[in-house]
Amino acid sequence: MDIAPRYNPKEVEEKILKKWLSGNFFAAKVSADKKPFSIVIPPPNITGILHMGHALNNTIQDVLVRFKRMQGYETLWMPGTDHAGIATQNVVEKDLAKQGLKKEDTGREEFLKRLWEWRDKYGSTIISQLQKLGASCDWKRTRFTMDEAYSETVKEVFVRLYEKGLIYRGKRIINWCPRCQTALSDEEAAHKEINGWLYYIKYPVKGYTGEHAEYVVVATTRPETMLGDTAVAINPKDERFNWLRGGKVILPIMDRELRVIEDEVVDVEFGTGVVKVTPSHDPVDFNLGKKYNLEFINIMNDDATMNEQAGEFANMDRFEAREAILELLEEKKLIEKKEPYKVSAGHCYRCHTIIEPRISPQWFVRMKPLADGAIKVVEEDRIKFYPERWKKVYLNWMYNIQDWCISRQIWWGHRLPVWYCKECFKNEDAEANAGIIVSKQKPEKCPHCGSHDLAQDEDVLDTWFSSWLWPFATFYWPNFRKDTSDGKELNYFYPTSVLVTASEILFFWVARMIMAGLEFKKEIPFRDVMIHGTVRDDRGIKMSKSLGNIIDPLEIIDKFGTDSLRFSLMLNASGGADLYISDDTFLVGRNFANKIWNATRFILLKMTEKNITIDNLELEKYDEIDAWLLNELNNAISGVTASLDNYRINDATKIAYEFFWHVFCDWYIEMVKDDFTRGRAKISVYVLLNAIKLLHPVMPYISEEIFQLLKENLFIKAEESIVVARWPKAKKVEGDTKSVNTITAIAQTIKEIRNIKTDLGLGQKKVSLAIKTNKDNEQYWKKHEVWIKRLSLLEDISFQGKLKRTVFKGELWELDLGVEELDIKNFLVSLDRKINNLQNVHSKVSGRLNNENFLNNASGEVVEAEKNKFTELSEQLKRLKELKNAFK
RNA sequence: GGGCGUAUAGCUCAGAUGGUUGGAGCGCUGCGCUCACAUCGCAGAGGUCUCUGGUUCAAGUCCAGAUACGCCCACCA
After folding, report:
1. SS3 A158
2. pTM for the predicted model, two decimal places
3. DSSP 8-state symbol, A745
4. Which of A386, A582, A703, A858 allows an S-S link to A692, with CB 3.0 to 4.6 Å?
5. Nucleotide B75: nearest residue by CA–C1'?
6. Which residue is nearest to nucleotide B2 (CA to C1')?
7. How confident is the model at residue A430 (pLDDT cuts 50, 70, 90)?
8. What is the ipTM of this complex?
9. Closest-lying nucleotide for A287 based on CA to C1'
10. Per-residue DSSP letters for A189-230?
11. How many CB atoms lie within 10 A of CB A550?
């Protein structure tokens, strides 16, 4: 037998991944006799490369999937990627720019061709990285949100919603990214605070007579928008401006007459109480414009440079124009003052450019009707959030939901299934439906006028408009095909069991999937939503490429192995809290993998050395130390199982770790290594096998490798892969508790002996031990003498009726060490500390027992336990004091 | 402006339904290359559980308030 003393993950992982993929172990099918367990992956962007967030998200899913698969569920993990409209287009545009080209130079068709080429070349990178991570998806199913069949679903959904009146075209103020040159939804405009100024600008009052102020002063953070002002507003209740009501002011620079309107939205407290109103460039002002029938003047181009409406500032960038306007106002002495001010501005979530609110004809989904059901299922806990607090966040958003802008002025994505009749459609009349034909296929002619002159809408749909269909569109609903068993698969696997995701896309994706599921499948898309934290660096800063603080999971895999990465992440991910990680975080995993490896190595080497073969794992006979171990194994099995059932993966990980290292390795293997009989070997292998099964969801590679090693070297029957092996079950342990308890007491005593030896400065020196105990206990000491000596570094053990001296006094026995002269300084210090601690607890307990209120109010069980504790503590204390007195 | 979260050892974090003497990993100190593993073993130091009040026989755990940090939402010109 030749097993390396160090675990080499690289070799092992490569080999095993091949086995898994070629062996089709992750494939799922409809099985009437099995319960389904299904997860759809949050599809990563095709532009994506595996980052720590992916690693965390997908490891969690994989743990759950592997666990359920081993439990015998028919398990489907549906993989796939998202076309990620803006993100991908940006990437390919950048690529094009290297050749000095813009997408307009190549034209739409050619540009799309390049996009598809790009996706064919790089789009599967993330998939192979997920495979490397060990993700046990049914890879043959890998979907893409722009697959032909998937696109059919998208169109179908659009048409259905339109026909139901839930999709409409409207000319409204939307979030416009001047860099990407497209509309965005509200969710895609991330609000961030920036340091700006609040400028106080004087607007001359028309017909100034000297009876009132010559100017009204308005406060603004965006002076450049004044060019589009068509009113100023005051609060109707604001008596300071009674004189201004019904009056007019003059917009400086433009010399435009502005109405004075009155509306409740104006905050009397803020600024001067007078607000400039720019209906075309501010959402609040837009509403005012509608309400009071104001003029809408658009002063900007698509790229946020000023247009001809901006007069002398035309063609300037918006921020350039701001400076120029301020300069001019300064010259005219129209700036009263400026104050530093923090402004919350929307930023494009793709390119971080500041959003420009803008009036534009776009397509929207009416959300309120969709939200109603989605609110109900969460209120009624038919969908549960883990941790639960996200329920509130979700509901709060849903209660206040706004219509969703779904059209994007980019090329990469699902083209809107919308055609315009050039005869009937009048663009300026954007609110009406005349001339708009919504249809999955290109219509032959306009149903209204019969014209054949039809043009498809140039826009594409928001990426999320396809992702929100993911849980059922991946089964090609509603057309299905043979490769999804004509819908049988959807019926079987839907609703999915759990959705695992980061909180960032709760609104983007999770909420919308619930709405889509209920609308189209008439059923929730998943039962549980597990929301995990964000991965941050060790200073608590979110990892991002632009900040340069990322820890690359692929590098960690390369350095420490995939299992180390996964194990360390799972150990750290708890209760949806954020994870703070550094390179060192992953050492725990590496060390543990090596420990597992070496425990296996030891067992197999010993068996070879002793010529032990095993052909089955029926446990025939075992003694007290075996029983003790099996009992611990049972606790681990039920602990890990219960934790995984409750999505407490970190607990499960910890329990398995603790058992493997600190129970199995530190104690059992040490106990049996000197007397490694066939019986011990069998127990060892049995426990090892069960332990690696417990670890398999978190550490799939090493557990598989060991599973295979055991199969190769023993003659036991086992599944082809641990992937499909049966999850461990707790087995009843035969054996009397007294024996097991005695073993526990011996182990405890061994720790005491080590402790005392250290205190006495004996260190690793082997000394002899004298023990005084009864015949009954003596037999255990004799039977287990070999490992007791080994673990407490003793020369020999003698049994005596009377000890010359006592260095340890326990409930069951007293001990002395065979050393003439004792350096008792440290020993006495430790002893004192122990006595002190015990004394503290003792007086606390006795205080409680002397407290009538406690005796009257606490439950009988608690009082009973407290009494027992008191007795035990008293005895312990007495022994320690006696021990101490003997040394005086 | 609303809402949420976190505060426990030097660091990163565990500590369901209040009741053993508050734990782990890393780091630190001391001793050991004991033939599975130095990616190891053994022993140890280190905590007024952020603060203040309250409920209770009993609070790290529940309640209220304060402080600090973080996050989310919002028509804060």
Report:
1. helix
2. 0.93
3. H
4. A703
5. A284
6. A396
7. low
8. 0.94
9. B75
10. EEEEEEEEEEEEEEEEBTT--SSS-SEEEEEES-GGGGGG--
11. 17
